[in-house]
Write a structure and sequence with these properties.
The protein has 9 helices and 15 strands. It has 331 residues and is α/β, with parallel strands linked by helices. Strands 3, 4, 5, 6, 7, 14 and 15 form a 7-stranded mixed β-sheet that branches. The protein has a 6-stranded parallel β-sheet with strand order 10-9-8-11-12-13, sandwiched between helices. The two termini are 13 Å apart. 48% of the residues are buried.
Length: 331
């Protein structure tokens, strides 16, 4: 590539034709922003899969470079917050939806969206964590703030084989919680056990319409599935239990009853990772750097090149991907 162009995934829409492909992009096409970055790593999240495959109305304007996560090195800055050479990371803020994102060799972003790479984490490790691990950490912090300690009982994690689920299991187990993992892929039991799951249940026991309340089973839950699954999770919470809602893989509907909220005093805590204030982001990333060790990154992430990312996005949407997908922009 010449200095005037860089490689990236470009999503285009002409009439009814929707395409996503790796292209040479002219630097003059980069959007407005006060910080320019050489991207080292990005990721593939569920939202990126929706954007690249066109299976969800994620992209708000065209053409668009997807990628809601990135980490890289500042090359030029008009902001007092950052200088050339700083390593920075980004999650969310509509990047990859309304503003060009991280699945390209270069990015131009607003400084208000960035935080510095936390001490103790490499660029590669930060993107192995990505929005998935950051969201899982926000969920764990929410459980802690609602008084859920390991002695209160089991914590259920739905969508256990996904990125959020994988990190939620890892973080909870390291903090001393007994974790129950819900998955539709029983063949991945060894993987989930290695992450720290003490018990594995079939997601089919939660995914169909159920009763408003059932036997109390778990003290808390981290749910990335939504719909009937979230309803059944609420129905099985112990008195005073808490569930964080951070995803909608099954659907965004919530066909629930108020019964467990009133009769058992449960709490449903919504977890937004996209527009989260910077102070919350910095806290979550500092905790991640503190809790995770080098060994935790070997089983959760798979590294691919940018040229492999479009095919991997289709695999992700087909349910063929386990854990995190790390995209190396330097390959």
């Amino acid at each position: 590539m010449s200095q005037a162009t860089f490689k990236g995934i470009l999503i285009e829409k002409n009439d009814d034709q929707y395409t996503a492909s790796v292209q040479a992009i002219d630097e003059s096409q980069l959007p407005a922003g006060d910080v320019s970055i050489d991207v080292a790593y990005s990721t593939l999240n569920f939202k990126d899969g929706l954007a690249i495959t066109g299976k969800g109305p994620v992209v708000r304007s065209f053409p668009m470079v997807p990628g809601i996560d990135l980490v890289g090195t500042v090359t030029q800055s008009d902001s007092d917050k950052f200088k050339a050479g700083d390593q920075v990371l980004l999650n969310g803020f509509g990047v990859g939806e309304k503003h060009w994102g991280g699945l390209a060799e270069k990015a131009r972003l607003k400084s208000d969206w960035l935080i510095k790479l936390p001490a103790g984490l490499s660029a590669k490790q930060a993107m192995a964590i990505g929005t998935a691990g950051y969201t899982a950490m926000l969920s764990v912090i929410a459980l802690e703030r609602h008084g859920i300690t390991p002695d209160k009982g089991d914590v259920l994690v739905t969508g256990a084989n996904g990125g959020v689920g994988s990190f939620a299991i890892t973080l909870l187990a390291k903090l001393g919680y007994r974790v129950i993992a819900s998955t539709g892929r029983p063949e991945e039991a060894d993987y989930l056990t290695a992450l720290g799951a003490a018990e594995i249940i079939d997601r089919n026991t939660l995914s169909a319409p159920g009763r408003p309340m059932v036997k109390e089973r778990w003290a808390a839950a981290i749910d990335s599935v939504g719909s009937h699954t979230l309803t059944n999770v609420c129905a099985g919470l112990k008195y005073g239990g808490v569930v964080t809602a951070c995803g909608l893989a099954q659907g965004m509907d919530f066909p629930a009853s108020v019964a467990p909220f009133i009769l058992r005093g449960i709490t449903l805590a919504g977890i937004d990772s996209v527009m989260r204030p910077l102070a919350d982001r910095e806290e979550a990333w500092a905790r991640l750097a503190e809790i995770l060790t080098d060994d935790d990154f070997t089983s959760i992430g798979t590294e691919i090149s940018l040229d492999e990312a479009v095919a991997a996005a289709h695999d992700l949407m087909a349910g063929k991907v386990r854990g995190r997908v790390l995209v190396n922009l330097q390959k």
